[in-house]
From TrEMBL:
Any one GO cellular component localisation term in the record: peroxisome
Organism: Aspergillus aculeatus (strain ATCC 16872 / CBS 172.66 / WB 5094)
The keyword Oxidoreductase is assigned to this record: yes
InterPro entries: DECR2-like, NAD(P)-bd_dom_sf, SDR_fam
EC number: 1.3.1.124
Pfam families found in the cross-reference section: adh_short_C2
CDD domains linked to this entry: TER_DECR_SDR_a
A GO molecular function held by the record: 2,4-dienoyl-CoA reductase (NADPH) activity
Gene Ontology biological process: fatty acid catabolic process
Name listed for the protein in its UniProt record: 2,4-dienoyl-CoA reductase [(3E)-enoyl-CoA-producing]
UniProt key word NADP: yes
Catalytic activity, reaction form: a (2E,4Z)-dienoyl-CoA + NADPH + H(+) = a 4,5-saturated-(3E)-enoyl-CoA + NADP(+); a (2E,4E)-dienoyl-CoA + NADPH + H(+) = a 4,5-saturated-(3E)-enoyl-CoA + NADP(+)
């Protein structure tokens, strides 16, 4: 059964603005990325979502396709973003079955709570490989198609009139705000997301002359997501939500709307930027999700593992 539109897209956008466009999304079966893709599909796009788990990825693809009658959404599982050959094959299949790639969302990521003492070199490398190398491999696999799409949908530099064919040649890297001020138990993610941000900025400079735009969406605390389940101890949720500047967590719709803004005509001159969608959360002086019972520095000095977190992972030194 289709999700109600208000759960993943605001009423601000005109139906059909992404007609005949194709979006390629790594991490597309995740809570946030699937909402981003669902919004684009609702507005006319077809899509290819990439994931590790075959069954989950194919199931989410079928679900996203219910957003619009006639939508084509391919779910490609068993793809390891750390291996560029795997992504090359996925991108080739996307182009073969859907006709091209106009938009890319690099959203595959890994995260868990661990202090540096608890974080092995292998665990650190795993997050760097998924986030940074995975984003780079996603870029490399799709760049030729993005450049082709950008050329096809270029804006007339003299009249500044939007292309009658719509937009194309755009990539969004899904990042975070953790590294803006740093927080305990998130060293691996802070380093990884800083690298992702630097990658996006470089793409904007090197491929801007070819018409490609590259931007970052940095979600803050988004409710009902796998990320919050992993990072927010269950004994601290109510206090954490209350501490937010807007008095609530964000929603996947907030991220989806930001995605539409950057891919639509509204984002035609936006490139090399970071769009933070966090309700001003990162500007608070208190730390992030790892708070409450995890009082700094007492809990850190105790050497104990972080308790009460879904998807808990352990890492041996």
């Amino acid at each position: 059964m289709p999700l109600p539109k208000e759960e993943y897209l605001s009423a601000s956008w005109k139906d059909g603005i992404f007609a005949n466009k194709v979006v390629f999304c790594t991490g597309g079966a995740g809570t946030i990325c699937s909402a981003q893709v669902r919004a684009l599909v609702h507005l006319g796009a077809n899509a290819c979502i990439i994931g590790r788990n075959v069954e989950k990825t194919e199931k989410v693809a079928k679900d996203i396709a219910t957003a619009r009658p006639g939508a084509k959404v391919i779910g490609i599982g068993a793809v390891d973003v750390r291996k560029v050959e795997s992504l090359n094959d996925a991108a080739s299949r996307c182009v073969k079955e859907l006709g091209g790639i106009d938009y890319v969302i690099a959203g595959a990521a890994g995260n868990f709570l661990a202090s540096i003492n608890q974080l092995s070199a292998n665990a650190f490398k795993s997050v760097i490989d998924i986030d940074v190398l995975g984003s780079y491999n996603t870029l490399k696999a799709t760049l030729p198609y993005l450049v082709e799409s950008a050329k096809k949908h270029s804006i007339n530099s003299d009249t500044l009139k939007p292309s009658p064919l719509g937009t194309g040649g755009r990539i969004i890297f899904v990042s975070a705000t953790i590294h803006y001020r740093t927080m305990p138990f998130q060293t691996h993610v802070s380093v990884a997301k800083a690298g992702v941000d630097a990658l996006s900025h470089s793409v904007a400079i090197e491929f801007g002359p070819l018409g490609v735009t590259s931007n970052i969406i940095a979600p803050g605390p988004i409710g009902s997501t796998e990320g919050m389940d992993r990072l927010l101890p269950t004994d601290n949720k109510e206090a954490y939500v209350k501490s937010q500047p807007l008095g609530r967590l964000g929603s996947v719709r907030d991220i989806a709307d930001a995605t539409v803004y950057l891919f639509a005509d509204t984002g035609s001159y936006v490139s090399g930027q970071t769009l933070v969608v966090d309700g001003a959360s990162w500007r608070m002086t208190a730390g992030g999700a790892a708070q409450g019972a995890l009082q700094y520095p007492d809990f850190l000095l105790s050497g104990d593992a972080v308790p009460n977190v879904k998807g808990q992972k352990t890492s041996k030194l």
